[in-house]
Amino acid sequence: MEYVGLQTQIWRNNFKSILLLIGFPILLFVLTYLFFFILSASEVDQDIFSMFPLIIVAVFIWFLIAWFSHSAMIRKATSSMPLERKKNLRVYNLVENLCISQGVSIPKIYVIPDSSLNAFASGINEKTYAISLSQGIIDKLNDNELEAVIAHELTHIQNKDVRLLIISIIFVGVFSFVSEIAFKSLTRFRVRGGKNKGASIGVIALLLVLGGVGYLVSLLFKFSLSRKREYMADAGASNMTKNPKALANALRKISEDPWIEAVKREDVAQLFIDHPTKRKKEGFGTFFKSLFATHPPIEKRIEVLEQF
Q1: Residues of 242-260 as b/e, b for ≥16 C-beta within 10 angstroms?
Q2: Which of 43, 126, 147, 153 is catalytic?
Q3: Catalytic residue list contains 180
Q4: Rounded to an integer, what distance in angstroms lies between the CA atom of residue 211 and that of residue 178?
Q5: Single pTM value for the model
Q6: Which range has the worst mean pLDDT, 145-149, 209-213, 261-265?
Q7: CB 293 within 8 A of CB 266
């Protein structure tokens, strides 16, 4: 595996974030315009084109809401809540000691009320950076193992992995929002003349094509979020704690029960240290799905850590 330094990883993630911030709105505008431009060649009631500026405004508002309330959305999607300091001094001491040693700001700390073992980091800046730990991972890991997991999440924050992930989640959500509007707009079409059936089929085909483009774009987002980020976060945690075996032991325990029941969304699932949903039995479908997985196999991560 190619070695990539910390500063190189940060630069790459910042560059990808800028590309998403610039490129995605342009792509969204082009696809929306293309949708209405193709419709103009069909015998569809022209009133539908009045929706174009409305869609642009709605997407802009949706983006602003998602940008400024993403933390609340993620907390809701994971059922996480603020971790009480008085009852969890052990966790706060581990986080604060690591942050002081690295000279970084202390993130907010949340707990997921689930007995399974998992954790994730989130946020786009120092005001919103946060580490969320399941109750199970707090209760079932010893101090060295829990410290290693926290160091892994702090590395994601340092590397700007979390900011890139949050931006991608927001944009994929915007694309889903637009697709939903487009499909619902079918009910407003009024087709003239004797070509009702043909025009309707054409519109549906157009929506399917644009939906396919949206799906491919979401896959590209996944590919841009390289699975190497987990290996780098593992390496960063090992360097931070000087104890790679502690993280290997933690990952081994996590792999036995990472399933957080509250997590239903795939875009949020990619934030976790291990995928928080139940694994299905091996088969062609699972093999194909693994090609697009956002996490490398946890067994390989443990194997790498044990070689340190």
Answers
A1: ebbbbbbbbbebbbebbeb
A2: 153
A3: no
A4: 10
A5: 0.78
A6: 209-213
A7: no
